[in-house]
């Protein structure tokens, strides 16, 4: 009898889903695991997909928050895990997540094991590694993002699941996590619960993604102003990088006129990239040379999105 359900929301090309489902069927605790595929739409799956899932759910196309809610509500297991259709969990992923949930935690947060071989993908993985190092030391975790997340069913019921007013795959899991912590729930860090992923393959794709992150973060923190100061996973150095990102660009333009000011601004920015540089040195030292450029690119995207988010709502 299943004790745990793994919900995978999906919309896209069916063949892209096969590696995820195969990995879930190879889990070390597969005997107590129910694989739930929740399609964001009404299209029925082909036979190759159907034989890899235990529960299949469809519904109106309304975004991943809605699809995840349909998925977990279709089950009756006491524990619910989530991963995404572009992730490939390691064989012991569910076991490691379950070990955290069986203890004193109400939710669990896993990690990316890798993200690709291109420079921008390796730098993005370094970014995640910096966050993981921070979360591993934090007394309170504020995030169980759904590429590798788990919850006690009773908490999903108590919180009424994901807020379906989030129309995109953007911050609906952050919102759920923050509501859980606010209600007294505890999130545990499952550092060994790993999923492989393909991070954004180009610098332009990465910029667009971070722009959206910055926009939706500001939209969400309007309801949770305390998370601006501390959210348990955003390095303080990143916030300083964001504040300095546009001054860096302006100072570079004015370099011939104000070389001293430009030098000071650049040195300050480089100083605030040192924590990320240190993480790169520990995890992927060959990308250290690109960390300052990556940090500036990221900061510009996040700050631009944040400015737009100040005037926007969820719709």
Q: Can you tell me about this structure?
A:
The protein has helices at residues 18-25, 47-50, 64-73, 93-101, 119-137, 153-159, 172-182, 203-221, 226-229, 236-253, 259-272, 274-283, 291-309, and strands at residues 4-10, 33-40, 55-59, 79-83, 87-89, 107-114, 148-152, 187-197. The protein has 315 residues and is of the alpha/beta class. It has two domains: 4-201, Spore Coat Polysaccharide Biosynthesis Protein SpsA, Chain A (Alpha-Beta Complex), CATH 3.90.550.10; 202-315, no CATH class. An eight-stranded mixed β-sheet has the order 3-2-1-4-7-6-8-5. Helix 2 links the parallel strand 2 (33-40) and strand 3. Helix 5 (119-137) crosses helix 12. It is elongated.
Which stretches are low in confidence, meaning pLDDT under 50 for 5 or more residues running? none
CATH topology (fold) name of the largest domain? Spore Coat Polysaccharide Biosynthesis Protein SpsA, Chain A
Beta-strand portion reads 15-25%
**Spatial sequence of strands, sheet with the most strands:** 3-2-1-4-7-6-8-5
What's the end-to-end separation, in Å?
41 Å
Structural class: alpha/beta
Tell me the CATH architecture of the largest domain.
Answer: Alpha-Beta Complex
What are the secondary-structure elements, in order, as H or E?
A: EHEHEHEEHEHEHHEHHHHHH
Largest sheet: 8 strands, mixed
- How many structural domains can be distinguished in the coordinates? 2
Judging from the principal axes of the Cα atoms, what is the shape? Answer: elongated
What is the multimeric organization of the chains shown?
Answer: single chain
Number of helices: 13
CATH superfamily of the largest domain: Spore Coat Polysaccharide Biosynthesis Protein SpsA, Chain A
Radius of gyration: 20 Å
Mean pLDDT, all residues: 93
């Amino acid at each position: 009898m299943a004790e745990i359900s793994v919900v995978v929301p999906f919309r896209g090309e069916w063949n892209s889903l096969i590696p995820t489902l195969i990995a879930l069927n190879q889990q070390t605790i597969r005997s107590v695991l129910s694989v739930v595929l929740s399609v964001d739409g009404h299209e029925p799956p082909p036979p190759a997909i159907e034989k890899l899932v235990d529960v299949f759910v469809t519904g109106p196309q309304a975004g991943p928050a809605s699809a995840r809610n349909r998925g977990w509500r279709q089950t009756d297991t006491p524990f619910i895990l989530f991963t995404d259709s572009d992730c490939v969990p390691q064989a012991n992923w569910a076991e490691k997540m379950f070990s955290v949930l069986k203890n004193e935690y109400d939710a669990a947060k896993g990690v990316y094991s890798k993200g690709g071989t291109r420079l921008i993908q390796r730098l993005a993985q370094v970014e995640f590694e910096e966050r993981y190092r921070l979360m591993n030391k934090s007394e309170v975790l504020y995030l169980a993002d759904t590429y590798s997340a788990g919850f006690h069913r009773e908490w999903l019921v108590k919180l009424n699941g994901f807020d379906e007013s989030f129309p995109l795959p953007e911050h609906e899991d952050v919102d759920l996590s923050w509501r859980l912590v606010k209600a007294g729930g505890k999130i545990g860090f499952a550092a060994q619960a790993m999923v492989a992923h393909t991070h954004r393959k180009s610098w332009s794709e990465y910029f667009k993604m971070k722009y959206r992150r910055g926009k939706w973060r500001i939209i969400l923190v309007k309801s949770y102003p305390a998370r601006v100061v501390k959210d348990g996973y955003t390095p303080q150095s990143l916030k300083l990088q964001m504040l300095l990102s546009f001054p860096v660009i302006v100072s570079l333009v004015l370099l011939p006129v104000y070389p001293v000011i430009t030098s000071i601004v650049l040195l300050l920015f480089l100083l605030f990239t040192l924590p990320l540089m240190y993480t790169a040195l520990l995890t992927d030292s060959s990308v250290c040379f690109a960390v300052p450029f990556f940090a500036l690119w990221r900061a510009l995207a996040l700050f631009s999105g944040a400015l737009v988010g100040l005037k926007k709502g969820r719709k």
